[in-house]
Amino acid sequence: MENVRDLNKKIYVGNLSYDSTETQIRELFEQHGKVESVAWITDRDTGRFRGFAFVEMEESSANAAIKSLNSELIDGRELRVNEARPKESRAGGGGGGGGRNDRNSGGGNRNKGGYNSGW
After folding, report:
1. pTM for this prediction
2. Which residue of 8, 10, 68, 92 has the smallest Cβ count within 10 Å?
C-alpha cells in the first residue's frame, strides 16, 4: 500500500503579505481540497514570517489550487503559487577564516624595535 504522503504534492506559495496568517492560507487552499499541512516559513533569528509558505495537498486538489490561485490578489499582493521544487543541496560551507595556527602569523616583523634581534 502506498504512503498517503506519496500521493500528495507540495506547493510553494510566495509573495504573501507579512500580515498573512497560517489559518488564512489554509482556508484559502481548503477551497480546493483537503490540506494535509502548511509549513509557515519564519526567519530563524527574528522569528518573523518571511512571506512564503508550503502547502501540502492531494495531487489533483493541488493542481486545481495552483491553477486557480496563482496570480490571485490577496491583501493587495499577487500570489505566486506553483509546485515546490526539491530543496537544493548546499554544497560546501562557504568561507569563514580558519583559526590562526601558524606561529608566524600576525604581529608584524618581530626583528624590529624592542625585540631581541639576536634570535
Report:
1. 0.69
2. 92
